[in-house]
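User: Sequence recovery, please. Input:
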Protein backbone atom coordinates (compact mmCIF):
# COMPACT_ATOMS: atom_id res chain seq x y z
CA UNK A 1 0.00 0.00 0.00
CA UNK A 2 1.25 3.47 -0.90
CA UNK A 3 0.57 6.33 1.55
CA UNK A 4 1.29 9.98 0.82
CA UNK A 5 0.52 13.32 2.49
CA UNK A 6 -0.28 16.51 0.57
CA UNK A 7 -0.40 20.18 1.62
CA UNK A 8 -2.95 22.01 -0.56
CA UNK A 9 -4.97 25.19 -0.55
CA UNK A 10 -8.31 23.38 -0.73
CA UNK A 11 -9.83 19.92 -0.71
CA UNK A 12 -10.64 20.35 -4.38
CA UNK A 13 -6.98 20.88 -5.23
CA UNK A 14 -6.00 17.94 -2.99
CA UNK A 15 -8.42 15.56 -4.70
CA UNK A 16 -7.19 16.55 -8.15
CA UNK A 17 -3.57 15.99 -7.11
CA UNK A 18 -4.35 12.66 -5.44
CA UNK A 19 -6.29 11.45 -8.46
CA UNK A 20 -3.42 12.40 -10.79
CA UNK A 21 -0.68 10.75 -8.69
CA UNK A 22 -2.38 7.80 -6.96
CA UNK A 23 -5.23 7.07 -9.35
CA UNK A 24 -9.03 6.91 -8.97
CA UNK A 25 -8.94 4.10 -6.38
CA UNK A 26 -7.07 6.22 -3.81
CA UNK A 27 -8.78 6.67 -0.43
CA UNK A 28 -8.45 9.73 1.81
CA UNK A 29 -7.33 8.60 5.28
CA UNK A 30 -7.37 11.95 7.07
CA UNK A 31 -7.60 15.69 6.52
CA UNK A 32 -6.57 18.54 8.83
CA UNK A 33 -6.79 22.31 8.43
CA UNK A 34 -3.47 24.04 9.07
CA UNK A 35 -3.75 27.80 8.71
CA UNK A 36 -4.84 28.65 5.20
CA UNK A 37 -3.95 25.19 3.92
CA UNK A 38 -5.24 21.64 4.38
CA UNK A 39 -3.10 18.58 5.09
CA UNK A 40 -4.54 15.49 3.38
CA UNK A 41 -3.23 11.94 3.73
CA UNK A 42 -4.27 9.42 1.08
CA UNK A 43 -3.51 5.78 0.37
CA UNK A 44 -3.90 3.27 -2.43
CA UNK A 45 -2.96 -0.30 -3.25
CA UNK A 46 -0.25 -0.82 -5.85
CA UNK A 47 -2.37 -2.43 -8.54
CA UNK A 48 -0.45 -3.51 -11.68
CA UNK A 49 -1.68 -2.04 -14.94
CA UNK A 50 -3.66 -4.47 -17.12
CA UNK A 51 -1.96 -5.92 -20.18
CA UNK A 52 -2.80 -4.15 -23.40
CA UNK A 53 -4.91 -5.87 -26.04
CA UNK A 54 -5.96 -8.58 -23.61
CA UNK A 55 -9.58 -9.71 -23.58
CA UNK A 56 -11.14 -11.18 -20.43
CA UNK A 57 -11.81 -14.89 -20.67
CA UNK A 58 -15.48 -15.76 -20.35
CA UNK A 59 -15.94 -18.80 -18.17
CA UNK A 60 -18.51 -21.23 -19.54
CA UNK A 61 -20.95 -22.77 -17.09
CA UNK A 62 -23.70 -25.27 -17.58
CA UNK A 63 -27.27 -24.00 -17.22
CA UNK A 64 -27.64 -26.27 -14.18
CA UNK A 65 -24.55 -24.80 -12.47
CA UNK A 66 -25.82 -21.27 -12.97
CA UNK A 67 -29.30 -22.03 -11.64
CA UNK A 68 -27.93 -23.92 -8.63
CA UNK A 69 -25.46 -21.14 -7.81
CA UNK A 70 -28.25 -18.58 -7.98
CA UNK A 71 -30.36 -20.79 -5.74
CA UNK A 72 -27.58 -20.97 -3.16
CA UNK A 73 -27.17 -17.17 -3.25
CA UNK A 74 -30.88 -16.60 -2.64
CA UNK A 75 -30.90 -19.09 0.25
CA UNK A 76 -27.80 -17.70 1.95
CA UNK A 77 -28.94 -14.08 1.73
CA UNK A 78 -32.37 -14.82 3.17
CA UNK A 79 -34.45 -13.67 0.22
CA UNK A 80 -38.16 -14.20 1.03
CA UNK A 81 -39.57 -17.40 -0.47
CA UNK A 82 -42.12 -15.62 -2.65
CA UNK A 83 -39.42 -13.43 -4.18
CA UNK A 84 -37.02 -16.37 -4.61
CA UNK A 85 -39.60 -18.48 -6.39
CA UNK A 86 -40.52 -15.69 -8.79
CA UNK A 87 -36.88 -14.96 -9.55
CA UNK A 88 -36.08 -18.64 -10.04
CA UNK A 89 -39.10 -19.08 -12.30
CA UNK A 90 -37.95 -16.22 -14.53
CA UNK A 91 -34.42 -17.62 -14.54
CA UNK A 92 -35.72 -20.96 -15.80
CA UNK A 93 -37.25 -19.21 -18.79
CA UNK A 94 -33.95 -17.68 -19.92
CA UNK A 95 -32.08 -19.01 -22.95
CA UNK A 96 -29.47 -21.70 -22.18
CA UNK A 97 -26.80 -19.66 -23.98
CA UNK A 98 -27.34 -16.82 -21.48
CA UNK A 99 -27.29 -19.15 -18.48
CA UNK A 100 -23.98 -20.56 -19.66
CA UNK A 101 -22.41 -17.14 -19.10
CA UNK A 102 -23.05 -17.45 -15.36
CA UNK A 103 -25.02 -15.73 -12.60
CA UNK A 104 -23.77 -12.26 -13.55
CA UNK A 105 -25.63 -12.54 -16.85
CA UNK A 106 -28.80 -13.61 -15.05
CA UNK A 107 -28.58 -10.59 -12.74
CA UNK A 108 -28.02 -8.29 -15.68
CA UNK A 109 -31.02 -9.76 -17.47
CA UNK A 110 -33.52 -9.82 -14.60
CA UNK A 111 -32.54 -6.74 -12.57
CA UNK A 112 -32.30 -3.11 -13.61
CA UNK A 113 -29.17 -1.00 -13.16
CA UNK A 114 -29.06 2.76 -13.75
CA UNK A 115 -25.59 3.96 -12.61
CA UNK A 116 -25.22 7.57 -11.58
CA UNK A 117 -23.88 9.61 -14.49
CA UNK A 118 -21.64 12.55 -13.71
CA UNK A 119 -22.19 14.06 -17.11
CA UNK A 120 -20.49 17.16 -18.60
CA UNK A 121 -21.71 20.54 -17.33
CA UNK A 122 -25.37 20.99 -18.33
CA UNK A 123 -26.60 23.91 -20.42
CA UNK A 124 -29.12 24.65 -17.67
CA UNK A 125 -29.26 23.97 -13.92
CA UNK A 126 -29.77 20.31 -13.02
CA UNK A 127 -30.71 18.68 -9.75
CA UNK A 128 -30.05 15.46 -7.83
CA UNK A 129 -32.33 14.88 -4.83
CA UNK A 130 -31.90 12.22 -2.13
CA UNK A 131 -34.63 10.86 0.14
CA UNK A 132 -34.96 8.04 2.63
CA UNK A 133 -35.51 7.05 6.26
CA UNK A 134 -33.53 8.59 9.11
CA UNK A 135 -30.00 7.28 9.59
CA UNK A 136 -29.42 5.48 6.29
CA UNK A 137 -26.53 7.74 5.26
CA UNK A 138 -28.17 10.31 2.96
CA UNK A 139 -25.89 13.18 3.96
CA UNK A 140 -22.68 11.17 3.56
CA UNK A 141 -23.94 9.89 0.21
CA UNK A 142 -24.68 13.45 -0.89
CA UNK A 143 -21.12 14.46 0.03
CA UNK A 144 -19.74 11.50 -1.96
CA UNK A 145 -21.78 12.55 -4.99
CA UNK A 146 -20.44 16.09 -4.61
CA UNK A 147 -16.93 14.62 -4.50
CA UNK A 148 -17.45 12.86 -7.84
CA UNK A 149 -18.60 16.07 -9.49
CA UNK A 150 -15.66 18.00 -8.03
CA UNK A 151 -13.22 15.37 -9.28
CA UNK A 152 -14.57 16.05 -12.77
CA UNK A 153 -14.08 19.81 -12.27
CA UNK A 154 -17.81 20.45 -12.46
CA UNK A 155 -19.71 23.12 -10.56
CA UNK A 156 -21.88 21.75 -7.78
CA UNK A 157 -23.84 23.27 -4.89
CA UNK A 158 -25.51 21.64 -1.91
CA UNK A 159 -28.99 22.50 -0.69
CA UNK A 160 -29.88 20.93 2.65
CA UNK A 161 -33.42 20.69 3.98
CA UNK A 162 -32.39 18.16 6.65
CA UNK A 163 -32.76 20.49 9.63
CA UNK A 164 -34.68 18.18 11.99
CA UNK A 165 -31.96 15.68 12.91
CA UNK A 166 -29.60 16.73 15.70
CA UNK A 167 -26.19 17.66 14.32
CA UNK A 168 -27.32 17.44 10.68
CA UNK A 169 -26.55 21.10 9.95
CA UNK A 170 -23.06 20.89 11.44
CA UNK A 171 -22.37 17.68 9.51
CA UNK A 172 -23.30 19.06 6.09
CA UNK A 173 -21.45 22.31 6.81
CA UNK A 174 -18.29 20.34 7.57
CA UNK A 175 -18.59 18.38 4.31
CA UNK A 176 -19.30 21.49 2.25
CA UNK A 177 -16.29 23.28 3.73
CA UNK A 178 -13.98 20.31 3.17
CA UNK A 179 -15.10 20.03 -0.47
CA UNK A 180 -15.12 23.79 -1.00
CA UNK A 181 -18.72 23.59 -2.21
CA UNK A 182 -21.37 26.32 -1.67
CA UNK A 183 -24.09 25.36 0.80
CA UNK A 184 -27.62 26.68 1.25
CA UNK A 185 -29.80 25.67 4.21
CA UNK A 186 -33.58 25.66 3.72
CA UNK A 187 -36.45 24.68 6.01
CA UNK A 188 -39.51 25.07 3.81
CA UNK A 189 -40.50 24.21 0.23
CA UNK A 190 -40.90 27.94 -0.40
CA UNK A 191 -37.24 28.57 0.48
CA UNK A 192 -36.21 25.65 -1.75
CA UNK A 193 -38.24 27.04 -4.64
CA UNK A 194 -36.60 30.45 -4.27
CA UNK A 195 -33.12 28.92 -4.33
CA UNK A 196 -33.85 26.77 -7.39
CA UNK A 197 -35.38 29.72 -9.21
CA UNK A 198 -32.01 31.47 -8.86
CA UNK A 199 -30.20 28.43 -10.28
CA UNK A 200 -27.23 29.02 -12.58
CA UNK A 201 -26.50 27.28 -15.85
CA UNK A 202 -23.77 24.66 -15.64
CA UNK A 203 -24.38 24.00 -11.93
CA UNK A 204 -25.67 20.74 -10.43
CA UNK A 205 -27.70 21.25 -7.25
CA UNK A 206 -27.59 18.37 -4.77
CA UNK A 207 -30.65 18.40 -2.51
CA UNK A 208 -30.64 16.66 0.88
CA UNK A 209 -34.15 16.12 2.28
CA UNK A 210 -35.24 15.43 5.88
CA UNK A 211 -35.10 11.81 6.97
CA UNK A 212 -38.67 10.53 6.64
CA UNK A 213 -40.49 7.74 8.44
CA UNK A 214 -42.42 5.84 5.75
CA UNK A 215 -45.05 4.89 8.35
CA UNK A 216 -45.71 8.50 9.38
CA UNK A 217 -48.03 10.15 6.88
CA UNK A 218 -47.21 13.61 8.21
CA UNK A 219 -43.51 13.16 7.46
CA UNK A 220 -44.22 11.68 4.03
CA UNK A 221 -46.48 14.62 3.21
CA UNK A 222 -43.72 17.03 4.28
CA UNK A 223 -41.23 15.22 2.03
CA UNK A 224 -43.72 15.22 -0.84
CA UNK A 225 -43.97 19.01 -0.63
CA UNK A 226 -40.20 19.31 -1.21
CA UNK A 227 -40.33 16.80 -4.09
CA UNK A 228 -43.17 18.64 -5.83
CA UNK A 229 -41.37 21.95 -5.38
CA UNK A 230 -38.16 20.63 -6.94
CA UNK A 231 -40.10 18.73 -9.64
CA UNK A 232 -37.47 16.05 -9.17
CA UNK A 233 -37.82 12.29 -8.63
CA UNK A 234 -35.56 11.58 -5.64
CA UNK A 235 -33.03 8.81 -5.36
CA UNK A 236 -34.03 6.58 -2.45
CA UNK A 237 -31.15 5.86 -0.06
CA UNK A 238 -31.29 2.56 1.86
CA UNK A 239 -28.82 0.90 4.22
CA UNK A 240 -27.69 -2.67 3.52
CA UNK A 241 -28.35 -5.51 5.94
CA UNK A 242 -31.94 -4.69 6.88
CA UNK A 243 -34.88 -7.06 7.12
CA UNK A 244 -35.98 -7.91 3.56
CA UNK A 245 -39.67 -7.41 4.26
CA UNK A 246 -39.11 -4.05 5.95
CA UNK A 247 -36.84 -2.85 3.13
CA UNK A 248 -39.39 -3.98 0.58
CA UNK A 249 -42.15 -2.04 2.37
CA UNK A 250 -39.92 1.03 2.68
CA UNK A 251 -39.10 0.95 -1.02
CA UNK A 252 -42.79 0.64 -1.87
CA UNK A 253 -43.62 3.66 0.30
CA UNK A 254 -40.99 5.84 -1.37
CA UNK A 255 -42.05 4.63 -4.81
CA UNK A 256 -45.40 6.23 -4.02
CA UNK A 257 -43.69 9.64 -3.75
CA UNK A 258 -41.74 9.22 -6.99
CA UNK A 259 -38.55 7.27 -6.24
CA UNK A 260 -37.69 4.92 -9.11
CA UNK A 261 -33.95 4.59 -8.43
CA UNK A 262 -32.02 3.86 -5.25
CA UNK A 263 -28.56 4.00 -3.74
CA UNK A 264 -27.50 1.48 -1.11
CA UNK A 265 -25.04 2.28 1.69
CA UNK A 266 -23.08 0.29 4.30
CA UNK A 267 -21.96 -2.56 2.09
CA UNK A 268 -18.95 -2.84 4.40
CA UNK A 269 -21.16 -3.45 7.45
CA UNK A 270 -23.37 -6.27 6.16
CA UNK A 271 -22.95 -9.88 5.00
CA UNK A 272 -26.46 -10.71 3.78
CA UNK A 273 -28.35 -8.74 1.16
CA UNK A 274 -31.78 -10.33 0.92
CA UNK A 275 -33.35 -6.88 1.28
CA UNK A 276 -31.32 -5.52 -1.63
CA UNK A 277 -32.39 -8.36 -3.92
CA UNK A 278 -36.02 -7.99 -2.82
CA UNK A 279 -36.04 -4.28 -3.59
CA UNK A 280 -34.41 -4.88 -6.96
CA UNK A 281 -36.62 -7.73 -8.08
CA UNK A 282 -39.95 -7.29 -6.25
CA UNK A 283 -40.20 -3.49 -6.29
CA UNK A 284 -38.34 -3.18 -9.61
CA UNK A 285 -36.35 -0.13 -8.52
CA UNK A 286 -33.28 0.77 -10.56
CA UNK A 287 -29.95 0.30 -8.77
CA UNK A 288 -27.84 3.47 -9.08
CA UNK A 289 -24.80 3.26 -6.77
CA UNK A 290 -23.10 1.33 -3.96
CA UNK A 291 -21.48 2.97 -0.94
CA UNK A 292 -19.07 1.68 1.72
CA UNK A 293 -18.01 3.51 4.86
CA UNK A 294 -18.82 6.98 6.24
CA UNK A 295 -15.69 8.68 4.85
CA UNK A 296 -16.26 10.90 1.81
CA UNK A 297 -12.89 9.72 0.50
CA UNK A 298 -14.39 6.23 0.19
CA UNK A 299 -15.75 6.65 -3.31
CA UNK A 300 -19.12 5.53 -4.62
CA UNK A 301 -19.06 2.30 -6.62
CA UNK A 302 -20.99 1.85 -9.84
CA UNK A 303 -24.07 -0.33 -9.54
CA UNK A 304 -23.79 -3.08 -12.14
CA UNK A 305 -24.20 -6.85 -12.30
CA UNK A 306 -20.48 -7.57 -11.79
CA UNK A 307 -20.18 -5.42 -8.66
CA UNK A 308 -23.43 -6.81 -7.26
CA UNK A 309 -22.33 -10.42 -7.72
CA UNK A 310 -19.02 -9.58 -6.07
CA UNK A 311 -20.72 -8.52 -2.81
CA UNK A 312 -23.27 -11.34 -2.97
CA UNK A 313 -20.46 -13.92 -3.12
CA UNK A 314 -18.10 -12.22 -0.63
CA UNK A 315 -19.21 -14.32 2.37
CA UNK A 316 -20.95 -17.10 0.46
CA UNK A 317 -19.89 -20.64 1.49
CA UNK A 318 -18.41 -22.40 -1.52
CA UNK A 319 -20.98 -25.17 -1.72
CA UNK A 320 -20.43 -25.48 -5.47
CA UNK A 321 -16.99 -26.94 -4.75
CA UNK A 322 -18.58 -29.75 -2.74
CA UNK A 323 -19.09 -33.20 -4.27
CA UNK A 324 -22.47 -33.48 -2.56
CA UNK A 325 -24.17 -30.87 -4.72
CA UNK A 326 -27.63 -32.01 -5.77
CA UNK A 327 -28.36 -32.75 -9.40
CA UNK A 328 -32.14 -32.93 -9.01
CA UNK A 329 -33.78 -31.89 -12.30
CA UNK A 330 -34.96 -28.27 -12.27
CA UNK A 331 -38.57 -27.29 -12.64
CA UNK A 332 -39.40 -24.75 -15.30
CA UNK A 333 -42.27 -23.37 -13.21
CA UNK A 334 -41.74 -23.84 -9.45
CA UNK A 335 -44.93 -25.03 -7.75
CA UNK A 336 -46.06 -22.96 -4.76
CA UNK A 337 -46.69 -25.19 -1.73
CA UNK A 338 -49.12 -24.42 1.05
CA UNK A 339 -46.98 -25.37 4.04
CA UNK A 340 -43.96 -23.41 5.22
CA UNK A 341 -41.71 -26.49 5.09
CA UNK A 342 -42.44 -26.87 1.39
CA UNK A 343 -42.23 -23.22 0.34
CA UNK A 344 -39.18 -23.81 -1.83
CA UNK A 345 -38.68 -26.42 -4.58
CA UNK A 346 -36.81 -29.60 -3.68
CA UNK A 347 -33.66 -28.53 -5.50
CA UNK A 348 -33.58 -25.31 -3.45
CA UNK A 349 -33.82 -27.33 -0.25
CA UNK A 350 -30.96 -29.47 -1.45
CA UNK A 351 -28.65 -26.48 -1.35
CA UNK A 352 -29.94 -25.43 2.05
CA UNK A 353 -29.08 -28.87 3.42
CA UNK A 354 -25.70 -28.82 1.70
CA UNK A 355 -24.93 -25.47 3.30
CA UNK A 356 -25.83 -26.77 6.77
CA UNK A 357 -23.62 -29.80 6.23
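Assistant: Recovered sequence (357 residues):
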Amino acid sequence: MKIKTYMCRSMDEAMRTIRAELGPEAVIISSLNEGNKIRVTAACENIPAPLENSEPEIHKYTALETKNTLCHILTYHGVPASVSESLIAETCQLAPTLLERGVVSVLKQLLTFAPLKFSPPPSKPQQVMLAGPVGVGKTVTLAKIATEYRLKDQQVEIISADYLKAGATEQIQAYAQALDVPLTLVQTPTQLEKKLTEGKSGVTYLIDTPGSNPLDQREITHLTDFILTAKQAPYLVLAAGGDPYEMQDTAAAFKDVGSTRFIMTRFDAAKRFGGLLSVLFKERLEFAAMSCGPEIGSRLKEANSDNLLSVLKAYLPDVMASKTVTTTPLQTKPHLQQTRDAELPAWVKGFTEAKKA
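The CA atoms of residues 54 and 300 lie 27 Å apart.
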